[in-house]
Design a protein that fits this description.
Strands 1, 2, 3, 4, 7, 8, 9, 10, 11, 12 and 13 form an eleven-stranded mixed β-sheet that branches. With 555 residues, this protein is an alpha/beta fold. It contains 14 helices and 19 strands. The N terminus is likely disordered.
Length: 555
Amino acid sequence: MPNTPDSRIVPVLAAAAALLLSSCDRSAIDDRPNLLLIVADDMGYSDAGAYGGEISTPNIDALAAAGLQLTNFHTAPTCGPTRAMLMTGIDPHPVGMAANAAAVARLEALHGRRGYDGRLNDDAVTVATLLQDAGYQTYITGKWDLGRAPGSRASDRGFSRSFVLESAGASHFADATGSLSIQPRARYLANGEPVAELPVDFYSSRSYTDRMIGFINAGDADKPFFAYMAHTAPHWPLQVPDDWLDRYAGRYDQGWEATAAARLERQIALGLFDAVPDYRAARGVSDWSALDDEKRRRELRRMEIYAAMIEYMDAEIGRLVDAFDKASGDRPTLVIFMSDNGPEGNAIDRLGRNAEWIAETFDQSIDNMGKTGSFVWQGVGWAQVSAQPFRLYKSYVAEGGIRTPAILRDSRTTSSGRSSSFAVATDIPATLLDAAGVEHPGDRYGGREILPIEGRSLLPLLRDPQRDIHAGDAVGFELYGNRALIRDGWKSLLLWPPEGDGNWQLYNLQVDPFERNDLAAEREVLLNELVNEWHRYADDNSIYLFEQDNGYGRY
């Protein structure tokens, strides 16, 4: 072509057109939402104000008011298995987290068994990895609890920036004292590398939030991001900064029966339930009036600190959501809030040699409770309050252990309200991928076989809150030998002594989510059908069948 003015312009125009098309392509990618997943640790169903609690949680309540409040959301009974569900969208058994690492170490029968690795194995790809592959920036701060060895850390499983507590729990202050006698000091990792020392003013809820806001603000504003805020509040040891210690002083003086009754009344007034049964104390809970003054003062202090921790966490959630919204600008956003399991009602001093270790290591005086150097947990009396109106608490497959608060706020929809549709923690990765427009690879990733995702996106509930996204699905649960399966609103449940008799029970959760009316004798055919479904689930997931309860900290 001759070198004329027109011939020189053509390639320039072509380059400009290509640049414009490229810009359009990037613009389309840029329209994908920023994603924020916030997980509380051991927070009960009724603790937040939006779920009937007296604890001040204006920021969680604001998410519920602006979004979709789920009233029938389920998790695993403890933290590690739930976190495996959140990262993979798969039942925790086949992906290595059938039980927490400490439980696997404690129960010799589980050693060397498939699925009982105590870490997230390589049979699944994490949602963080898939989002990262799709161009998302991926951040995590807080609790990881899915593996400590190289290859199993958050930085190895799809998070580009990370500041995490490796284990299940620790002191919330800079001393980083561990939560078990077998792990006297906890370890934090920053981008996969051990943190030698925490800042002297470290406090979990605030410091995790500082780190996450730092990650967000330092990121590329032209690319979407996924932020996973994994709080360790209100997991034991219960601790709060000194100026918050007396925030709830006197609030619980009426005791656990009256506190639970007031929550039940609020739940009815809020329209969460048409009616609820009267408060029923868990096994091992004394009448409040029967406690002596010393015991009463200790029990009150437990709940005062627990409530203050939740309010403090709520304030930090508000600070994070504000920063998240500001950084997102005009970009769409999806915020998910949830708790990882029911409240902690087990006797932590009966776990391993914790009783001796606690006595030797900590100042357990009432004046020191909640401070650095104390070791306090919620206990069975208050945990049953936090789980209201449900039965039992963390570590059990009864509703009090596996039904938790959960909220979705999507900026692309103006709808709000509640959904009583059954949902489960494995749905969270499917929801995040759906929001980002990312397809799960199915059964192969990176040249290897993987497990396909099981969860279902919750986004259709934003348009139709009562849509049954799990119609016909049989969803199984198991931990420490206790068993359950939910299908179409029916639940088969087996609890070994001391909480059950080792026989299968049957509940219609649509009318009796409180598990008060066992229909096993009346609906024997249906029960047998669900029990058979559970055994298929157990076979498919190589579940070890304990014939007794093997939970921790039993009273």
